[in-house]
Design goal:
It is built from 2 helices and no strands. It is mainly alpha-helical.
Length: about 70
């Protein structure tokens, strides 16, 4: 499940992009379902990653997307 940790920020971003470009055409109800659905799916993935990490206490999850500040 830890391989899916990248989905946690990506799912709400995809929902935002969908609502940005197709939200008015899809309608208010569809835009709401997409917005809430992607955040809920992200939460479920986060729960899955959390419980997978809790099951293996000596295993760390290190995700490096880049350096924040070079000193």
């Amino acid at each position: 499940m830890q391989n899916y940790a990248w989905l946690i920020p990506v799912l709400p971003l995809l929902g935002f992009v969908f609502n940005l470009f197709a939200g008015k055409k899809a309608g208010k109800a569809a835009a709401s379902v997409i917005a809430v659905g992607t955040v809920a799916a992200s939460f479920l993935v986060a729960l899955g990653v959390f419980f997978a990490m809790k099951a293996t206490p000596h295993h760390r999850l290190d995700l490096l997307y880049g350096t924040w500040m070079a000193t």
